[in-house]
Amino acid sequence: MKTSQFFLHTFRESPADAQIISHQLMIRSGMIYPTYSGIYSWMPLGLRVFSKIEAIIAAEQDKIGCNRILMPTIQPASLWIESGRYDCYGKEMLRFKDRHERDMLYGPTHEEVITDIARYFIKSYKQLPVIFYQISSKFRDEIRPRFGVMRGREFCMKDGYSFDIDQEGAQNSYKKIFFSYLRTFKTMGLTVIPVRANTGAIGGNLSHEFHVVAQTGESEIFYDAAYDSVDPAALTFEELEQIYTAADERHDPATCGVPAERIVKSMGIEVGHIFYFGTKYSKSMNFSVIGKDGAPFPPEMGSYGIGVSRLVAAIIEANNDKDGIIWPDAVAPFKIAIITTNQQDTRGAALAESLYSKLLAANVDVLLDDRNERAGVKFSDIDLIGIPYQIIIGTKAVEYGQFELKIRRTNIRQDLSFDEVLNKFSAGG
Ligand code: ATP
Ligand code: MG
Question: For residues 398 and 323, what is the distance between their CA atoms, to the nearest angstrom?
Answer without folding.
Answer: 28
